[in-house]
Specification:
The protein is of the alpha+beta class. The protein folds into four domains: 12-150, no CATH class; 167-229, Dna Ligase, domain 1 (2-Layer Sandwich); 232-332, ATP-grasp fold, B domain (D-amino Acid Aminotransferase, Chain A, domain 1, 2-Layer Sandwich); 342-424, Alpha-Beta Plaits (2-Layer Sandwich), CATH 3.30.70. The protein is 25% helix and 28% strand. It has eleven helices and 20 strands. It has helices at 43-51, 74-80, 105-119, 144-150, 175-180, 208-217, 281-299, 332-339, 358-364, 402-411, 417-424, and strands at residues 2-5, 8-11, 23-26, 32-34, 37-39, 61-65, 92-94, 125-127, 168-172, 189-193, 202-205, 225-229, 235-243, 254-263, 269-274, 305-313, 319-325, 346-355, 376-384, 387-396. The strands form five sheets. The protein has an eight-stranded antiparallel beta sheet with strand order 17-16-13-14-15-18-20-19. The longest helix is centred in the last third of the chain and has 19 residues, at 281-299. The chain is globular, with a radius of gyration of 21 Å. The mean pLDDT is 93.
């Protein structure tokens, strides 16, 4: 898509450049330990996640969202207090209001399936992690079994050279198999559920005690688990890639951009840094390997769209591909907004809450989302009772500014794990 920016025409890269026209994209996951996938399933997070694509879908894609995005005027409020654009109402497919944060587990999967059958059209649906239900098979654009296979970490060695993967010490058919195992595993190590979301199925085990706790934590998990080498790294990078739909095989699949991952101590994804005008020789080397050696293999399987590879780089410059996501991720929208100069500074993404009236939220938070006071780019917003929940980028010129910026937000009543981490950098 072309747009006029400061009297110059600029190519705006969006999801519409990678999917067929009239694609209906649902950025969500099945809940629980079913459908060949583990998702602990915080419905509040799921609601915010589904709305992230409203800022990067482009002209030709419809976005499926949870009703909370529209309820209480959340999206309207965000439109009125933002300097970035969101897709039009005609591109939004809301799920029924009855699918809310109180609907959990298998019941949630069932009512979502029924809603998708009713509200999406045959052959147009893309779901970040497909619900593998026979009733939905004809609705999906891409064979859901292919997407599920690609998103399963145990299959990484089918398209990534062994030299670029951490050593795998052992594999277990399920959590009980790991729990009962008498194999003496090396320490440190990493325990992974083979197919899971947002780092929920990962435990970094630096001690024998941590490994034993991981066995307890994952004892009830039904899918494959494995234990692999722990990599001490200097960089943890998420490379966002794109493979355009319906292009000749020689059309270059490519890296759209990248971010530095922010994770919790147990490996859970919390957010990401994108530095303005960053250039790093090693990162460029990794990018070249991904574009020339790995992405063409994926394109040959007739998969298309956007996704990411998580890559660790150690102190000697050796890099390891530790995970793949053949779906939009928590950083996709931010990478596209940055690439399109809609975010013009360095940034770190985070999820937060604020309790108060609408007037207080506008004054204390949304006033920082546009205009001269701007330090935020909020891309998704929901509300329940007097609590606002949002996903945003905190903007900065130099990293040393971040503790003060984080303090400014928390002093206004914003609560966020990432902001608390940033305050400690002082």
């Amino acid at each position: 898509m072309l747009c006029l920016d400061d009297d110059k025409w600029q190519i705006m890269l969006t999801l519409s450049d990678y999917f067929p026209k009239n694609t209906e994209y649902f950025y969500s996951y099945p809940v629980g330990d079913t459908f060949y996938f583990y998702n602990a399933g915080d419905p509040v997070d799921d609601e915010l996640i589904s709305a992230r694509l409203l800022v990067c879908a482009g002209e030709d894609i419809k976005v499926v969202v949870y009703n909370s995005i529209l309820k209480d005027g959340s999206l309207k409020l965000l439109r009125e207090n933002s300097d970035i654009s969101f897709v039009g109402e005609d591109q939004i497919i809301p799920l029924p209001e009855t699918i809310n944060e109180d609907v959990l587990g298998n019941e949630r999967n069932e009512v979502i399936t029924e809603a998708l059958l009713e509200r999406t059209s045959s052959g147009n649906l893309i779901m970040a992690q497909p619900i593998l239900d026979e009733r939905l098979i004809n609705d999906y654009q891409i064979d859901p079994k292919l997407s599920i296979w690609l998103n399963d970490k145990k299959n990484l060695d089918q398209y990534v050279p062994a030299s670029l993967l951490p050593k795998r010490y052992a594999e277990f058919v399920n959590g009980k198999d790991l729990f009962d195992s008498k194999i003496k595993l090396p320490i440190p190590c990493v325990v992974k559920i083979s197919a899971s979301s947002s780092g929920e199925g990962i435990r970094l085990c630096l001690t024998r005690e941590a490994l034993e706790q991981a066995k307890v934590d994952f004892k009830e998990r039904t899918g494959t688990l494995f234990v692999e080498e722990h990599i001490s790294y200097t960089h943890n990078i998420g490379f966002q890639f794109g493979i355009p739909f319906n292009k000749p095989r020689f059309f270059p699949s490519h890296i759209i951009g990248y971010n530095h991952q922010v994770t919790a101590a147990d490996g859970e994804f919390l957010g990401g840094f994108i530095y303005a005008k960053e250039w790093d020789a090693k990162i460029e080397e990794v990018k070249t390997v991904l574009e020339t050696e790995i992405l063409p293999k994926i394109q040959e399987k007739d998969w298309y769209g956007v996704g990411s590879f998580d890559v660790l780089i150690d102190a000697e410059g050796k890099f390891y591909i530790i995970d793949s996501n053949f779906r939009t991720t928590g950083m996709t929208a931010y990478v596209l907004l940055t690439k399109n100069n809609q975010i013009g500074k360095s940034m770190i993404s985070f999820t937060a809450t604020f309790k108060g009236t609408e007037k207080e939220f506008i004054k204390r938070v949304l006033s920082l989302n546009h205009g001269k006071k701007k330090i935020l780019t909020i891309i998704s917003l929901t509300k329940k009772d007097d609590e606002y929940r949002f996903n945003a980028a905190l903007l900065f010129d130099q990293r040393k500014e971040l503790p003060a910026l984080a303090l400014k937000l928390t002093d206004q009543g914003v609560k966020s794990v990432v902001l608390e981490m940033l305050k400690k950098e002082a």
